[in-house]
């Protein structure tokens, strides 16, 4: 990746021949060679130089072709390369949006990914791409992605919690027009997001604040939306007990039919391995 970054910056004219010679190596029988080449290509895609040299489509197709590679690291790096297009060639992301989104969804559904490294890369790359894709391309996949990432909110791995929650917040921008469908996903994840404001990892707390601020406008409750915007600013510390007390008042005034669902979801967290979340759940019910 360091070599790729340096060459993109300082040796652009030499890249077409190098890329041409490396493309066959993507089919090498040696994992190490495919990993090295994919890492190099992935880094080149973060620079606009590949667009200037008319290499982008070739490299994008090669990264997409690595999605079925038997080596997990190759699959992960290929997704990273496709995500890097958001900084290297944002206008091409718009053009190839549907294809790129399909690659990210496939990455999240990767069946041979015991540590969820491919899924993690897919989620963080998708968050980068969302700023540049057409709304119509994301709408058809919105529900599938929201359901797919939901289990990661409670992952033991903090980077999976952080990435999935941040992605959920980013997805909520596209919920208009699909408001009822996505609103249901917000309600399904609401207790989890509110409890993880007490997460032991600061980066997860920041992601929860962001996601709740983003989801607020879709919830149809002005008081709740204002609370999320005012109390969940990144730079502001949170008095959790007082905050959750006021949130519950708004929830019961606006959605009284949700009482059973809120209580049953909180009961699940009575056995949480995180002590602050274990404490927050009965406070929420109270």
From TrEMBL:
Show the coiled coil region(s).
Answer: none
Q: Where does the Maestro/Maestro-like HEAT-repeats domain start and stop, copy by copy? A: 61-286
Query: One GO cellular component from the entry?
Result: cytoplasm
Q: InterPro entries attached here?
A: ARM-like, ARM-type_fold, HEAT_Maestro, Maestro_heat-like_prot
Per the record, the domain of life is Eukaryota
Signal sequence extent: none
Pfam families, from UniProt? HEAT_MROH2B_C (PF23227)
Recorded protein name is MROH1 protein
The protein's organism comes out as Halcyon senegalensis
Source taxonomy lineage? Eukaryota, Metazoa, Chordata, Craniata, Vertebrata
| Chain's gene name | Mroh1_0
């Amino acid at each position: 990746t360091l070599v790729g970054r340096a060459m993109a910056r300082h040796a652009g004219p030499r890249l077409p021949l190098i890329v041409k010679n490396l493309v066959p190596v993507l089919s090498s029988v040696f994992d190490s060679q495919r990993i090295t080449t994919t890492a190099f290509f992935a880094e080149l895609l973060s620079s606009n130089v590949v667009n200037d040299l008319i290499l982008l489509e070739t490299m994008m197709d090669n990264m997409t072709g690595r999605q079925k590679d038997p080596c997990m690291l190759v699959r992960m790096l290929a997704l990273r390369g496709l995500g890097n297009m958001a900084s290297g060639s944002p206008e091409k992301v718009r053009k190839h949006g549907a294809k790129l989104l399909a690659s990210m969804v496939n990455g999240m559904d990767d069946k041979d990914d015991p540590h969820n490294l491919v899924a993690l890369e897919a989620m963080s790359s998708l968050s980068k791409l969302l700023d540049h894709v057409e709304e119509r391309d994301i709408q058809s996949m919105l529900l599938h992605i929201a359901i797919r990432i939901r289990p990661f909110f409670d992952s033991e791995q903090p980077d999976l919690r952080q990435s999935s929650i941040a992605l959920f917040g980013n997805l909520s921008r596209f919920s208009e027009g699909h408001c009822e469908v996505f609103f249901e996903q917000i309600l399904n994840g609401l207790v989890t997001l509110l409890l993880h404001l007490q997460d032991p990892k600061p980066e997860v707390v920041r992601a929860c604040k962001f996601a709740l601020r983003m989801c607020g406008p879709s919830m149809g409750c002005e008081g709740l939306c204002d609370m999320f915007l005012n109390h969940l600013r990144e730079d502001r510390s949170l008095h959790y007990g007082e905050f959750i007390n006021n949130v519950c008042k708004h929830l019961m005034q606006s959605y009284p039919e949700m009482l059973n669902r809120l209580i049953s979801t909180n009961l699940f967290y009575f056995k949480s391995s995180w002590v602050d979340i274990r404490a927050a759940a009965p406070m929420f019910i109270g």
